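Quick note —
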Amino acid sequence: MSTTSAIGSFVAALAGPMLLAIGFAALFNRRVFRNSLRDAADHQAVILIAGLIAIGLGATLVKLHNVWVLDWPVLVTLAGWLSLLAGFFRTIWPDAAGRMARRFLDSDVAINVMAIVFLAIGATLVNIGFP
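Predicted structure written out below.
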């Protein structure tokens, strides 16, 4: 297994279960999911720290796994770039990020779509990370 494949598989094994947990929490424990994220969205310090963590994670993924192919490794690459962009957005505009999060949390449809997408991607990554 190449280094890039090993990194991709490792990231899949880490991210897959997290995405599954978030997806299931959003679907089956909506009140706690919504209240926890609403609380975070109301605190600029939490948004700023989340942004910095996202930048660190995204930069690490982009540096170690910047693979553009028409196969599963591109999911890891896209996650890295999206994390980097989301981190910059949260760090530069924490108020706007908080408003967007609160608007998202007010929509059951948006939460359901996000949950289904996270469950699908999470299941795919678990399958890759734990062959």
